[in-house]
Amino acid sequence: MPPRWPRQPDRNDPAFRKIDDRMNFAFHVALFSASNSGLWFFHNFLHMTWQWLPYVTGSWFAVLLVHLIYISAIANYSDNPPKST
Fold first, then answer.
1. Which residues contact 81 (CB under 8 A, 6 or more apart)?
2. Is residue 64 a contact partner of residue 27, using CB atoms and an 8 Å limit?
3. Which domain holds residue 33?
4. Is 3 among the domain residues?
5. What is the pTM of this model?
6. 2: pLDDT confidence band, cut at 50, 70 and 90?
7. Does some domain include residue 40?
8. Which residues, 6 or more positions from 54, have their beta carbon under 8 angstroms from its beta carbon?
9. Cα–Cα distance measured from residue 30 to residue 36, given in angstroms and rounded to the nearest whole number
10. Fewest CB within a 10 Å sphere: which of 2, 38, 39, 42?
11. What number of CA atoms fall less than 13 Å from residue 59's CA on the CB side?
């Protein structure tokens, strides 16, 4: 069952922004897990020599780590976010 929001969704609502960013991160983790597990399965099952696979996995994991750091430490979920000029 998908998550329900008790009021009209609005990107200006700090609580909605926070849950939206976390759901977006969860989607990216699921995509990373499904893609990389499939790639590594075929790499091992078919005895292929994909030298590029560890670099793809490592760089994608690094991007996920940066995403996690952003949503947990950097993102501003206050009521009045600073306006860009």
1. 14
2. no
3. 20-74
4. no
5. 0.79
6. low
7. yes
8. none
9. 10
10. 2
11. 5
Q: What is the DSSP letter of 13?
A: S
Q: Are 55 and 61 in contact (CB under 8 A)?
A: no
Q: Which SS3 state, helix, strand or coil, does residue 1 take?
A: coil
pLDDT in tens, 29-83: 999 999 999 999 999 888 878 899 999 999 999 999 999 999 998 888 887 656 6
Identify the DSSP state of 12: T
User: Which residue is listed with tokens 């590594």?
Assistant: 40
For residue 85, being part of any structural domain is answered with no
Tell me how long the chain is.
Answer: 85
- How many domains does the chain divide into? 1
Q: Is residue 46 part of a domain?
A: yes
Lowest mean pLDDT segment, chosen from 9-13, 20-24, 61-65, 81-85? 81-85
Using an 8 Å Cβ cutoff, are 66 and 32 in contact? no
